[in-house]
Amino acid sequence: MASKRIVITGIGRGLGRAMAEGFAALGHEVWGCTRSPESARALSDMLGAPSHVDVVDVADDDQVKRWASDRLSQSEPPDLVLNNAGVINTSAPIWKVPTEEFDRLIDINIKGTANVIRHFLPAMLARRQGIIVNFSSGWGRSTSPDVGPYCASKWAIEGLTRSLAQELPSSMAAIPLNPGIIHTDMLERCFGAAASGYPSNQQWARQAIPFILNLHAGHNGQPLTVPQ
Question: For the stretch 99-129, what's the b/e string if a residue is b when 16 or more beta carbons lie within 10 angstroms of its beta carbon?
C-alpha cells in the first residue's frame, strides 16, 4: 500500500499512541498531536522522520489552526484524518458532574473534532480526496448510567459525522467509527479491574490499522465498528 499522510489527534497515550506507532512502522507519515510536551518529545524521537508530533490542545481553535497551517505549508493535504482525542467524565449521575468537567469534555470531544475538520478539510476538498474518521463509541449508539456527558458527546459525533458525509463530494468519506471495547485508561475508570479482560491498545491496533487503511469513499456516512 502506498504511503499515506495520516493526521491523528490524541496520540500521547492509548489508542492514539498505538495507532501512531503502528502506522509509522508500516511506513506511513503521521501528523500527530498531544497536549503533553513530554509525550510529544518522546513520540517524535520514536516515530522519526517524516512523521511529526506537535503539542496541540484540540479544544483550542487557534492552536489547531496554527498546527494545520504549519503542516499544510510543508506538505500535501492528509489522506486520512483520525479524530481520536477524547476524555470521559468521572462516573456520576449527570447532575453531579461538575460544570467545569462537563464543559471540558464537550470542548475536547465535540468542539475539538470540529476544529480539526475546520482547518484540515478545506485542503482535502481542494483535491477532492481523503477520508475523515471521527472516533465514536458504543456509547455513541447506546447509553448507560453515570456516563451521560460522554454519551452525549459521542452521540453528537455520530450526528455531526453523518451530516458531514452528506456535504462531501462522492470521492471522499466521513465515517463515525466505534473502536470497540479496549483496555484503556478510560475503560479502567468505568469498569475497574474488569477492564483487563479486554484487548490491549496494541492488540486492538493490529486489527484496527488494516481496517482503517482499507476505508474508502464507498463507506461515506456509514457508522462502522472495528472488528475484534
Answer: eeebeebbbbbbbbbbbbbebbbebbeeeee
Tell which residue, 173, 157, 167, 168, has the closest CA to residue 214: 173
Cα dihedral 63/74/160/146 (nearest 10): -50
Tell me the residue type at 87: V
How far apart (Å, rounded) are the C-alpha atoms in residues 228 and 175? Answer: 18
Catalytic residues: 150
Question: Contact at 8 Å (CB) between 139 and 180?
Answer: no
227 in Cβ contact with 179 (< 8 Å)? no
Q: Which of 173, 109, 16, 163 is nearest to 7 (CA)?
A: 16
Q: Is the pTM of this model over 0.90?
A: yes
The total of other beta-carbon atoms located within 10 Å of residue 201's CB is 21
Distances (CA, A) of 142 to 84, 112, 162, 213: 19, 22, 17, 27
Segment 70-86, tens digit of pLDDT: 999 999 999 999 999 99
Give the whole-angstrom CA distance, residue 74 versus residue 24: 19
DSSP letter (8 states) at residue 111: I
Q: Are strands 80-83 and 131-135 parallel, antiparallel or unpaired?
A: parallel
Other CB atoms closer than 10 Å to residue 39's CB: what's the count? 18
